[in-house]
Structures are given as C-alpha cells and as structure tokens.
Automatic annotation (TrEMBL):
Protein name: LFA3 protein
Domain of life: Eukaryota
UniProt KW Protease keyword: no
GO molecular function terms attached to this record: signaling receptor binding
Lineage: Eukaryota, Metazoa, Chordata, Craniata, Vertebrata
Coiled-coil intervals, chain numbering: none
C-alpha cells in the first residue's frame, strides 16, 4: 500500500465538481467510496457503475477523475479513490466541503479629491475575484477598489461590481450620480 494522502477540496452548491486526480499510468481498476460506501467503480473493461447517491449525476473517467454534477450540500464528506495499476493498489483521500454560493457583493463609496472611490466587498469565506465595469465603458477593471474622476460621471453612468468564485458569478450595481449629488 502506497502512502495515504488526504486533500481538502471544496465546491459550490449547484456547480459541477471534479476531484483533482492526475494519474499518469494505465489503470486496471478504480473504486471511489464516500464515507466507506462505494459510489462509483470501473473494472477496466465495461462502462463504470454508479451507486446511490451519485447515480445519474456523476461521471468517472478512465484516468480516475470523478465529476459530480449539480453539487448538493449532502455531497460533502470524505471520499477515497482506490486504483490498481496491475502492480500497486494506491489510495487517495479527499475531504469535500460544499459551500453556499456567494451572495451579491456590497458596494460602498467615498469622495477623495476629485474622484469617486468605489469599494466592493463580499461576505464569502474564500477569496473571490473582483471586477468593475462601467455602463459607458466596455473595459473591465480587475480590482476591489475602483476610482473614477468625478467629471467623467454623467446622469446615466452606472458601475457594476462582479465577484467571481469558481464557476459562480454575482453582481451589484450602483448609479454614480446618486453618489456625488
């Protein structure tokens, strides 16, 4: 038996999640278990077999990758991959946490010199990517704080903050004229 190694992984409710497995050699047999119960297995010949709770919502690839579609809270738990490459049995362990998607971000603002300074915050427990877009400008600005010269603001300009985590994106928008009037 090779070394047993456990990795913390996480996915978001409603997303598809693939365990980060990279097996280079040819595999003869694969078994995936969740909390000691079989959830998927492949004998090297026939199509993979899936068991409840992953039946109908997962795919097992020949390289050992297991993907769960439309992740649910109940998918959280300890998973174990066991594979046989005709020489060794190898075990990989994963602890899957399933997080609620982030909620819409919060936008706050202040006026500094001749600029309107916007700040975007998220209550999400993991680092997110922040992007700003202005309604009158096609470019994206990749930052949590965004500064706009006040003379560039007209009555219709809106700013939208997007937060992205994994495959999930949420946004909030603010009308800039109300910030400076």
């Amino acid at each position: 038996v090779g070394p047993i190694f456990s990795e913390d992984v996480f996915g978001i409710v409603g997303e598809n999640f693939t365990f980060p497995v990279e097996i280079k050699q040819r595999i003869e047999e694969i078994t995936w278990k969740k909390n000691k119960d079989k959830v998927a297995e492949w004998d090297g010949q026939n199509p993979p077999i899936y068991f409840i709770p992953l039946q109908g919502r997962s795919v097992l690839n020949e390289n050992g990758n297991l993907t769960i579609f439309n992740l649910e809270k109940s998918d959280a738990g300890g998973y174990e991959l066991q594979y046989w490459d005709s020489v060794n049995d190898t075990y990989l362990k994963f602890i899957l946490a399933v997080l609620d998607p982030p909620s819409e971000p919060n936008i706050s603002y202040s006026i500094k010199d001749d600029n309107l300074v916007l700040n975007c915050t998220s209550d999400f427990q993991r680092p997110v990517t922040y992007t700003w877009k202005l309604s009158n400008d096609p470019r994206s600005h990749w930052s949590q704080e965004f500064s706009i010269p006040i003379n560039n603001i007209d009555a219709t300009t809106k700013a939208i903050c997007f937060i992205t985590f994994s495959q999930t994106e949420k946004s909030s928008e603010i009308s800039l004229i109300q910030c400076i009037s």
